[in-house]
Specification:
- The protein is an alpha+beta fold and 376 residues long.
- It has three domains: 78 residues, Rossmann fold; 64 residues, ATP-grasp fold, A domain (Dna Ligase, domain 1, 2-Layer Sandwich), CATH 3.30.1490.20; 193 residues, ATP-grasp fold, B domain (D-amino Acid Aminotransferase, Chain A, domain 1, 2-Layer Sandwich).
- It is built from eleven helices and 15 strands.
- Strands 7, 8, 9, 10, 11, 12, 13, 14 and 15 form a nine-stranded antiparallel sheet that branches.
- The radius of gyration is 21 Å and the shape is globular.
- The mean pLDDT is 94.
């Protein structure tokens, strides 16, 4: 697995029962997965020679992020190394402009969008939307490299649209969608075409970062839930995805769903599956990239809630274990071995049960206590 973050750490854990020999390419020895994986190579994933040396002896290469240069992945494939997902699929998670063009081509509902060249072009794009005034606000995104709110700008005027162009990379403009909530449809697809779909979840964001995931999404109609699952499965098939695919969605006020982002790896919106599904997203990603039969994605309980644990003012979160575990013996805490910094994702908690309000309260209390925002 290229990447040594928490996704690699948890994917490695899922491979242990299968006896999978797992190797990672990590930036530093301190990365989350590098702390627990036995076979660690420290190197730069942007260097082709490093990638080739890392891939030697591997049966398959997969990823915990989308940042490996596309041309390097093509070179690995040319060397005879199975890359899953392959570069022709992964480029749609790497480049938002490519993603929007392809999804539009295959008839997937997306926000109105186009590549813009300068602030004046942004103003022209905004005006194309019609309605009252000048068409602002709009969303601007760098086509590559953004995540957790980084590389994304909410702009209200042409004057505010200057910063995204300073980096000298292409910029994608999108309409400001009038949505009621964000959803995510997680699916897994194997090389021979078997695919499974997890329940559609609601993803709640705070300051552009995923905070809470509720599985399944409350009060989502069977019709819209089924449509979201079918859409994600169709995207996986059309793009030739191998492994886990997360399709982030907007549910609009007029009852539609629009695709926001794609991720071709285990995803924050699927962390609930570790404890809430028969087969986790991590286990199914391992199965998929090795072309093993996929596991059951069904939930184990009526409701599962995942809440991210963000760093706060208390660096030693482990002192909170006594309270959290004693208060809720069913709680599961997943920590990533990261240094605690304010606002940094350092772990998550999962709770499950029969009554949503109670399950949600337990998860929020535990995450808040570990962070230090709740003291009793």
């Amino acid at each position: 697995m290229v990447g040594g973050g928490q996704l690699a750490r948890m994917t490695h854990e899922a491979g242990i029962p299968l006896g999978i020999r797992f190797k990672i390419l990590s930036d530093t020895p301190q990365d989350s997965a590098a702390q627990v994986v036995g076979d660690v190579v420290i190197g730069d994933y942007r260097d082709l020679d490093t990638l080739r040396e890392f891939a030697r002896g591997c049966d398959v290469i997969t990823f915990d992020h989308e940042h490996v240069p596309t041309e390097h992945l093509r070179a690995l494939e040319a060397d005879g190394i199975p890359v899953r997902p392959g570069p022709d699929a992964l480029v749609h998670a790497q480049d938002k402009g490519v993603m929007r063009a392809r999804l539009t081509e295959i008839g997937v509902p997306c926000p109105r969008h186009r590549i813009v060249t300068d602030p004046a072009d942004v103003a022209a794009f905004a005006a194309e939307g019609g309605g009252e005034g000048d068409g602002f606000p709009v969303i601007l995104k760098t086509v590559r490299g953004g995540y957790d709110g980084k590389g994304v700008w909410f702009v209200r005027s042409e004057a505010e649209a200057r910063d995204p162009f300073l980096a000298g990379v292409p910029v994608l403009a999108e309409e400001m969608v009038d949505f009621t909530r964000e959803l995510a449809a997680n699916v897994v697809r194997s090389p021979h075409g078997q695919a499974v779909a997890y329940p559609v979840v609601e993803s709640r964001q705070v300051d552009g970062v995923c905070d809470t995931v509720i599985a399944p999404a409350p009060e989502l109609s069977e019709e819209l839930s089924g449509a979201a699952q079918e859409l994600a499965l169709r995207i996986a098939r059309e793009l030739g995805v191998t492994g886990h695919l997360a399709v982030e969605l907007f549910e609009t006020r007029d009852g539609r769903i629009l695709v926001n982002e794609l991720a071709m790896r285990p995803h924050n919106s699927g962390h609930w599956t570790q404890d809430g599904a028969v087969t986790s997203q991590f286990a199914n990603h391992v199965r998929a990239v090795l072309d093993l039969p996929l596991g059951d994605p069904r939930p184990r309980a009526p409701w599962t809630v995942m809440v991210n644990v963000l760093g706060g003012d208390y660096p030693d979160m482990y002192q909170g274990y006594l309270h959290c575990m004693a208060r809720d013996p069913q709680l599961t805490i997943h920590m990533y071995g990261k240094d605690v910094k304010p606002g940094r994702k350092v772990g998550h908690v999962n709770t499950y049960g029969d009554e949503l309000g109670e399950v949600l309260e337990r998860a929020r209390h535990a995450a808040g206590y570990l962070r230090g925002t709740i003291v009793e």
